[in-house]
Recover the amino acids of this structure.
């Protein structure tokens, strides 16, 4: 099985130095594009490879790039930003790539920057990733020293600077326009679209924001071609994917597997199945903002279209397992507390609706719920849904709520009828502060 | 008053962006690194230096979880309270920390040694529960490990 993204990552071992990385073929894609390909050809290749954004949205990367104005009359400088603000609860896949092989990310960023003719690039890294910050800083310096970054890269006339920016903690920073505001030294509120960042992004200039895993795919696509990349997937979606599992399984972790590997295979063959004494009840397939899937979905392939057809989203591909000893109301309350806390407060439905949802869930969890509370929650899943809020935060928050109300409604009703949490001895969750 | 060294570091950050105010978050980070937190006085110093009003800078400073506008202890404990750590029982860790340190979330120990804060997902969900103290990450936590971990910090 091919594992292009993680083939040089050995847990517990320091990442490859630039010299070691070059020995295993590192930076070959940079040499290839600078010598043999036009930016438009790189864009076309990536579009043809059907690489989709690995940050959760799943949009065709080459298509996203194609909206950047090209040619001599366009605004400069153009910017490329690697979104390394991995803050989706339950998600820990980019950490593996950032800590394990920073040169692969830098190489991918050079490819992306060349394709859109960006001359300045940033790695927007979340503050908590201290090891990654150290390794990336070192790797960027090595890349400058070797002439892969800076002026006139490898004598091609192409220039690219790269900076590491560490955030100061806010989930909103993962939203690409909010991330750009954070980079500009502002509150990380999302921006109105249009204009899209491709036309007017960082400091008002054309900008592309790509996820770390997306960028790490690029060197391999350049080296091996679009058909090879498409062939890696088992289903209609191309490439490999970093899948993760957390919760009460025997061996939680993160593995690079073909796109389209079934949920059951990931859970049983890689995560080792449920821990003894715990039964599977449901899972969030791709982070906190994705709809629950249950037993009947376990044979679904993990790819964008299959998971969407089942009413959820593949999201980041890192699954969170809910076991039978975890209260579904408490689980949902924990998620909604997170979203209510991380709402930027800019638009009213999100600012007011999420704390309301949290308050109701807390009442239900404490045994103070009323039957009409479920109707209020149902109402919110519509009212805070897509199209009613300024960005995707609140609709994302409603995904696990609406599916919890669908699959675990009896558990919600039991709390209300019995006036207490049936799991209360196992766990009673109280929001912090 | 900003020190000469702080000004030097902030000047470097300003040199990388179109306007001085674009470097305001970096400037806050630099000052917080030295003082542990951002006092009203520090806020005004930074605001003056990058050409913003104190109110405008405070709107930025208070937006972010890790710019501290109140004093913190010598070490800050950030306990992950997100979903994977919830499933794996972080509450036991929380209760033990409350008991051992005699503080609740948002409080600092009487000797100024620790401040305890809840924190969103630390991105190490396969090794939950987890917490960070200063720059150090601790994973697969059990209550039994806490004394040894806390004793490393004076």
């Amino acid at each position: 099985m091919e594992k292009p993204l993680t083939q040089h990552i050995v847990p517990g071992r320091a990442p490859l130095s630039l010299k070691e990385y070059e020995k295993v073929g590192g930076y070959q894609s940079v040499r290839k594009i600078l010598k043999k390909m036009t930016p438009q050809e790189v864009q076309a290749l990536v579009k043809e490879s059907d690489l989709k954004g690995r940050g959760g949205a799943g949009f065709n990367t080459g298509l996203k790039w194609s909206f950047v104005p090209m040619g001599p009359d366009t605004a400069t400088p153009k910017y490329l930003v690697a979104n390394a603000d991995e803050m989706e609860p339950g998600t820990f896949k980019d950490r593996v790539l950032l800590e394990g092989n920073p040169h692969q990310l830098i190489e991918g960023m050079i490819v992306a920057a060349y394709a859109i003719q960006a001359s300045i690039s940033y790695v927007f890294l979340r503050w908590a990733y201290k090891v990654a910050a150290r390794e990336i800083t070192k790797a960027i310096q090595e890349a400058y020293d070797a002439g892969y970054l800076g002026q006139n890269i490898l004598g091609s006339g192409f220039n690219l600077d790269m900076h590491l920016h560490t955030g100061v903690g806010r989930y909103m920073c993962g939203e690409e326009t909010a991330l750009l505001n954070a980079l500009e030294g502002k509150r990380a509120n999302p921006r109105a679209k249009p204009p899209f960042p491709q036309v007017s992004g960082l400091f008002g200039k054309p900008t592309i924001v790509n996820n770390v895993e997306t960028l790490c795919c690029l060197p391999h696509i350049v080296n091996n071609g679009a058909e090879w990349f498409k062939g890696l997937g088992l289903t209609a979606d191309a490439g490999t994917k970093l899948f993760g599992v957390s919760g009460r399984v025997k061996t939680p972790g993160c593995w690079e597997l073909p796109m389209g590997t079934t949920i059951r295979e990931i859970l049983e063959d890689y995560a080792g199945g449920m821990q003894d004494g715990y039964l599977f009840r449901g899972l969030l397939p791709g982070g906190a903002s994705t709809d629950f899937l249950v037993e009947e979905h376990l044979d679904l392939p993990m790819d964008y279209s299959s998971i969407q057809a089942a009413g959820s989203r593949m999201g980041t591909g890192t699954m969170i397992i809910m076991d039978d000893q975890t209260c579904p109301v408490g689980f949902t309350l924990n998620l909604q507390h997170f979203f209510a806390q991380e709402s930027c407060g800019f638009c009213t439905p999100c600012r007011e609706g999420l704390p309301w949802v949290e308050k109701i869930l807390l009442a239900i969890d404490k045994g103070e719920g009323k039957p009409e509370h479920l109707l209020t929650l149902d109402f919110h899943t519509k009212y805070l849904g897509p199209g009613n809020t300024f960005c995707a935060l609140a609709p994302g928050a409603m995904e696990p709520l609406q599916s919890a109300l669908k699959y675990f409604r009896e558990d919600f009703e039991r709390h209300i009828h019995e006036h207490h949490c049936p799991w209360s001895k196992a766990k009673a969750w109280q929001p912090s502060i | 008053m900003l020190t000469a060294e702080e000004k030097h570091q902030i000047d470097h950050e300003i040199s990388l962006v179109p306007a001085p105010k674009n470097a305001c978050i970096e400037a806050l980070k630099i000052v917080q690194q030295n003082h542990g937190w951002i006092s009203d006085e520090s806020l005004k110093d930074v605001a003056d230096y990058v050409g913003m009003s104190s109110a405008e800078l405070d709107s930025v400073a208070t937006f972010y979880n890790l710019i501290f506008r109140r004093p913190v202890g010598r070490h800050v404990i950030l306990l992950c309270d997100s979903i994977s750590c919830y499933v794996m029982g972080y509450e036991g860790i929380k209760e033990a920390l409350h008991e051992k340190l005699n503080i609740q979330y948002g409080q600092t120990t009487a000797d100024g040694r620790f401040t305890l804060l809840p924190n969103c997902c630390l991105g190490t969900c396969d090794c939950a529960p987890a917490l960070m103290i200063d720059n150090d990450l601790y994973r697969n936590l059990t209550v039994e490990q806490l004394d040894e971990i806390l004793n490393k910090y004076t």
